[in-house]
Amino acid sequence: EPEVTQTPSHQVTQMGQEVILRCVPISNHLYFYWYRQILGQKVEFLVSFYNNEISEKSEIFDDQFSVERPDGSNFTLKIRSTKLEDSAMYFCAHQGTGHKRTEAFFGQGTRLTVV
Amino acid sequence: GENVEQHPSTLSVQEGDSAVIKCTYSDSASNYFPWYKQELGKGPQLIIDIRSNVGEKKDQRIAVTLNKTAKHFSLHITETQPEDSAVYFCAASNSVSGGYQKVTFGTGTKLQVIP
Description:
The structure holds two protein chains of two kinds. By secondary structure, chain A is mostly beta strands. Helix content of chain A is about 0%, strand content about 50%. In chain A, the strands form two sheets. In chain A, strands 2, 4, 5, 6, 9, 10 and 11 form a seven-stranded mixed beta sheet that branches. Chain A is globular, with a radius of gyration of 13 Å. By secondary structure, chain B is mainly β. Chain B contains no helices and eleven strands. Classes of the chains: A mainly beta, B mainly beta. The interface between A and B is medium-sized, with 25 and 25 residues.
């Protein structure tokens, strides 16, 4: 099963600071996603990314958030000015290929703590 | 958009007993229903899935059922073992074949298997 690697595993930042969360892509995967899970709550969709552009985003994904995958490198989620309520686990997901093309594989997550 | 409800929120069973988790969904266009297991500090891991053209699917001790008319689906774990203890999420998706898939998660069930 493909592995989705996320870095860092834990990030502590001060309110108002910018953070960048990274996800190492798997070759041949075309669709990328970011999800968020606030402690004790369900996993929530943030954004999907295909062919170097956003294909869908939720109401959570406001102007403070951005995603990019420059030149086929890491898939990143940037939060420009963090708020306390941004504290959560952030999961990157990739969609499989071939006979597993409808499966979404999740990374282990980045725990973001905003203080 | 899609809304997925999940019950119960917590479930304790004796080792060897069965566990059942139930979910309902709202969007009749949803056609793919994955189940994820999330262990502490890890990302969601796909354990089984079912598509809307199938009513039941089994994989060893795990089975899922789907009732499209009633828009509900269930996870059944038989002969539970302590290592089954985790949080389980149901999810729903309108999966385009070979294409984009946004997953809407349920609220999660914390399963505890008592030795």
